[in-house]
C-alpha cells in the first residue's frame, strides 16, 4: 500500500482525502481583528487551544493569528489570562 501525501497544506493527520479539502480562508469578512501584545504574551497557548478555526500561529515566544482564516470572534482575547490579545475594529487597519 502506497503512503498518501496530503493534497493541501491545511489537511490534518486524520484525513484520508485524495482531493483538496475545502479551504475556509474567510478572513476578509471579519469586522474585528485580534492584536497581540508580544510583551504581555506568556506563550501559554490558551488562545490557540480555544480558537475555533485553529488559526493561531506559534512564533518564537508568542502566538499570532493567521488573518487569512481568523473570523474575528474574539474568543482568543476572552481566553487570554494576561489580556495580551485585544480586538480592534478592522477599519483601523485599512489603507
List the helices and strands and how they pair.
Elements: E1 32-36, H1 46-50, E2 56-58, E3 63-65, H2 75-79, E4 85-89
Antiparallel strand pairs: 1-4, 2-3
Give the structural class.
alpha+beta
The CATH topology is Alpha-Beta Plaits
Q: At the first level of CATH, what is the class? A: Alpha Beta
Number of strand segments: 4
Mean pLDDT: 81
Rg estimate, integer Å: 16 Å
Number of domains: 1
Biggest sheet features:
2 strands, antiparallel
Q: Which architecture per CATH?
A: 2-Layer Sandwich
In percent, how helical is the residue content?
10-25%
| Series of H and E elements | EHEEHE
Low-confidence stretches: none
**Roughly what fraction of the amino acids lie in strands?**
15-25%
Q: What characteristic shape results from the CA principal axes? A: globular
